[in-house]
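Lab notebook, bench 4. We co-purified these components, and the gel suggests they stay together. Before we commit to crystallization screens, I want a quick structural picture of the whole thing.
Request: model the full complex, all chains together.
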Amino acid sequence: MTAELAVFITMGAAAAVTASAVVLSKNTVHAVIYLVMNLFSIAVLYLALSAQMVAFLQIIIYAGAIMVLFLFTVMMLNMTGAVEAAEDRLLKQKPLAAALGLMLIAEVVMGTVGLFSKPSGSMAIEDGFGSAGEVGSRLFFGYMLPFEVTSILLLAAIVGSVVLARKKDEE
Amino acid sequence: MGYAWLAIGFPLLGSLINGIFGRFLPKKAVGWTACFAVGASFAVSALVFAQMLVMPETSRHVVSALYTWLEAGGFRADMAILIDALSVTMMLVVTGVGLLIHIYSVGYMGGDTGFSRFFAYMNLFVASMLLLVMAENFVVLFIGWELVGICSYLLISFWYEKPSAAAAGRKAFITTRIGDVGFTLGVVLIAAVLGTVSYDAVFGRIIGVGSDMAAAIALLLLIGAIGKSAQLPLHVWLPDAMEGPTPVSALIHAATMVTAGVYLIVRAAPIFVQAPWVLALAAGIGAATALFASSVALVENDIKRVLAYSTISQIGLMFLAVGAGAFAAGMFHLVTHAFFKSLLFLGAGSVMHALSGNTSLNKMGGLAKKMRATYAAMVIGALAMAGIFPLSGFFSKEALLAGAFHAPFFGRIVYAAGLAVSVMTAFYIFRLIYKTFHGESRMSEEGWRHAHESPISMTAPMSLLALGAVCVGWIGLPSRIGQVVIASNNAFEEFLRGSVSAVAFGNEAVSQWWMAAAALGAGLLGIFAAWCCFIRFRGIASVFVRKLSGVYQMLVSGFWIDQAYDRVFIRSGRALAGFMARQVDIGIIDGAVNGIAGCVGSVSGMLSRVQTGYMRSYALAVLAGAVVIAGYALFILK
Amino acid sequence: MLPVGYYIALSSFMFAVGAVGVIVRRNPIIMLMCIELMLNAGNLALIAFSRWNASMDGHVFVFVVITAAAAEAAVGLGIIVAVFRQKSGDIDMDSLSEMKG
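Here is the predicted assembly.
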């Protein structure tokens, strides 16, 4: 039992459990919390995979900013989850969706059987793998264009959310 | 003799001028143009005739080709005319009688609004008829054949606003079309089997073809002749064709177009001679038609319809003679018939003109006092038709009957039939004369006062035709008399012999004295019977009608042939057309087209139900698609 | 390093759970969160493969994905707020079916 395996088992289990909990919980606030916990587990897994920069990004942006935004909205709109108590018109979809999900997992697992054995070749990585410096140099030397486009995407999102949230009488 | 083309060209030009510019020209100019065109054509024909007379007999066969019209593979058809005795004879008849009728029409049609249109059509007809008789090959003949059919249609339904006239035009065209199908097939067969359509070549090659094929060709051509010449069973259009103006009836349906069938048989005689039974068939049909038509004419009460049935009957006699092999006799009667029949028609037109369009014999009477010239002309025509010596009809009818007598099959029987027809002919034509001109007037007071003699433009042509009806017969004086009077044999027959085998089966149509006497006697008997019925003992006719009412009904309705055709062909044709229109066209075809549209509509309606509006359903569909694609990518693409 | 298949299995599990959640839940906030779950699953797979191939490209990809997720969450929440203003009470996704047909 290597350390990596132990980390994987615990964090993996935590991620799986919290993911299911997000889908199954009735209370909206609980669901948000579960998702935050899920994101933390994933971040730990990133660290195990030598992706330090991405792990920190995940915690800061994803778990920190986005989830807080979700919480803001939930609190502001006072969503209690009562909608789920009403009658579901599309009941037939539940088992069908569950079946499809299982099929998807089975497909992926069976299709990637070769990936479950120990890697034979060397998978040595250099020292700075996954560090901020490496990510930065990659961004600015190889992927400059996607970087800029992403910033435009953020601009669009900002404008969009401002427009959407405006009250109508503020013309 | 290339200038002979002008005979066709002049009337064609006249037709174009009157057709295009007629509306803007004064009536006088239109009439002059038309008459001048035909007159010039007559002059050309006379010139050709004169030139032919000085040629030696063996070279009276001139071909003049304008250009090659069809050429495909080894087959050729030129636009060519043939000048020989037969075509010259027909040219003279068509242009001569045509000229007189055109002059008559200037007066007769003077008050009609379609004046220029009438003369355009008439000139076109003359040109087409000339093309027909002057043709050098079967293709040009066919062109002329179809053209005269069109002109006949146009002229019968000249007053096209009248529904009965339009219907009569259609009936004529459709009925002759049936005959034309046979004719077309015959020409096609000639081209296919013999490889050529030129007369000379065809007649040369027909001998080697075998009598079955020749019989087939001859039979098909005969069908065409039956249609065009209104013989049984395709005669039904001619009485109705009287809806057209009287000059039209005179020119087309008495003198020229309806005789085209006889001309065809004589022209294609070499083909017919190869299959004698077809000639026998023609003779039989002619005899039957002659008997049928003259019996119907006995009871007909419309003055023009009497003459129409009379035409059918006389052409039947021509078919009889030609079928018996006496081609010259048949052509002789064609020529004399052209004169006295058109004379009778023009006279009838004159009477109708005086009585403001009344055609019923029952409403006429006593007109002899008021219309002397017309009366005289019609009596001459009637005497000629009855075959009274020494008018033209006597000689031609006698030649006909002699030809029938010497027929190689049932000679005695057809001769007897011919005699019976002669008696009936004389009877009905003099019945017409007596009812129209003699006795007391059966018309209204006002009608009587209005009745007047026709203007000189109408009576002058009639007089000239009457002169022809008297004299034309003398060209065909049988050899015995001719030897005495003009020291020649039957001049007409001699003339024709140059071009066409004037006889077949060695049928010289030699007449004996007793035959001549019998023919004359038959005519006199008919006249006497008519005089008895209608002048002396007035009541006899109505007694006959009462006693033999069944026979009378049968005669009046034309042996119910029209009704039979209506039942068998017309009703079923209408039913089929109705079926096709409703069930096939609306039901099947429209149904299919509309059905496709409906299908598309319903399918799209079904498909649009997929868009439920629920976003979760769409997400489910996306997931399903993702599963499918993932499976494909992971398992199948490997 | 562990066999990469383990991480892939976990990633696919999370993805399936997120997909089912989108279909089954009617609360829009939960649906958005399930979408985030799916994005995360994708990120995990990317990082795992990137480590396996010793290449930094996967990290850059994840960087962009996180940015896009942030933008999408912002706009999505804005939409929810705007819709919420129209209706009183909680929003049922099923009632927003005007795109029917």
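Residues 52-77 of chain A form the longest helix (26 residues). Worth comparing against the SEC data before the next meeting. The helical segments of chain A are 3-24, 28-48, 52-77, 93-111, 132-141, 144-165.
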